[in-house]
Design brief:
199 residues; alpha/beta; Metallo-beta-lactamase, Chain A; six-stranded mixed beta sheet; 6 helices; 23% helix; 33% strand; binds zinc ion
Amino acid sequence: MEIMRFSLGNLKSNCYIVSEAKKTFIVDPGYESEDVVKYIKKYNLDVEAIYITHGHFDHVGGVKQLKDLYGCAVYAPIKDKIWMSKTTYNQFGYEIPVDHWVKDLDKIDLLGHTFTVYDTPGHSEGSTVLHYDSILFSGDTLFFQSIGRTDIPLSDSMAIYKSIKRIYSLFNEDVIVYPGHGRATDIGHEKKFNPFVKA
Ligand SMILES: [Zn+2]
């Protein structure tokens, strides 16, 4: 499985293109991006799906463009629906097109592998991580030596603390963490060096 990272927009949100045998799915396309579209074209990838880790604008802004282009299925956490529906939390003026609302322990078949969704509330109510084997997309919950912001609407600092403790208990030390912003890390490193939540 190949994981390509694109850092998009002025918030430098990570969008991941995950591919294997010409099939691909996209995690958190936060902004419309020519680079993402060019990459898919260059490698002639068949886009199966989009996975949204949480509903914030800098993780969903490119969803509609990609869905219009590829007709792929979109998965997003039900508990963050408020950010993606037509509410005052949604700044786009249109509903983010989601096909499948997911929740804790849901399984999703992507590229012929079974990925599992875990609810990790805190940064947002509906924040999730997506796991398969030694791969963990952590959204804005866990970063390299940092954690998601909890000074924004509908966030909860006690909840994110518990969520990260849960992540530490669920996954092996060698699981690679692909966060919503910044460089990748692994569970072992964060357990030891994360200054906000230690194991
Ligand atoms: Zn966020």
